[in-house]
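To whoever is covering the structure queue this week,

Two jobs came back overnight. Logging them here so there's a record in the thread.

Job A:
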Amino acid sequence: QVQLVESGGGLVQAGGSLRLSCAASGGTFSTYGMGWFRQAPGKERESVAAISWSGSNPYYADSVKGRFTISRDNAKNTVLLQMSSLKPEDTAVYYCTATKWGSGSRLMKVGGVEYWGKGTLVTVSS
């Protein structure tokens, strides 16, 4: 059983930056594809970014391309989401995800994810 704990959320002004971190435990981190989803009030959960177990070919939602960067540190069992040029529409609860041997577009689909964190709230003020 993999446990995921997100941190780094908070309140930031539009145009600012924030870095989310997800600490994983309970599994061999390097064998898991990792991702970030978000859910805004009244909206469906959507994929934001993902990185395969091998660390190759990160995926990004069109809405965050060029602004967000996902990375992983296998030595620290951590996945990061660096967010810049934040917009009010980025306001949401952000969830960390993990999928055994996960890669490709599977990581960007709710149904393709095995483990979820409890989420961290990001609020972007205008």
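Job B:
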Amino acid sequence: QVQLVESGGGLVQAGGSLRLSCAAAGPSFSRYSLGWFRQAPGKDREFVGGIHRSGGTIYANSVKDRATISRDNAKKTVFLQMNSLKPEDTAAYYCAAKDTILTAPIPTTRKEYNYWGQGTQVTVSS
């Protein structure tokens, strides 16, 4: 089992950048694929991007070219770098983890992930 704690959220002006972190506690972090999701008030939680245990990444079209996900297995941490932020990026951001075999793709749906953090709020002002 793994526990996830997000940090790095805050208030930022449109066009600015944020780097979110998600620290994990528990064994076998390197076996997990990790995803970032976000949820705006009144909306469903949506996939932002993910990183495979092998290091490959995938991004939602809404953030492609503005987001970069990376991981540091030694520190058991995954990062989401968001640039050129827009007001529509305002949401609570969550990281999630799933124990993944090497040949499996990065999970992209909420139901595929086993473990979730509590979220960190990102607010982008116009």
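Note for Job B: The mean pLDDT is 96.

Please reply-all if you pick these up so we don't duplicate work.
Q.
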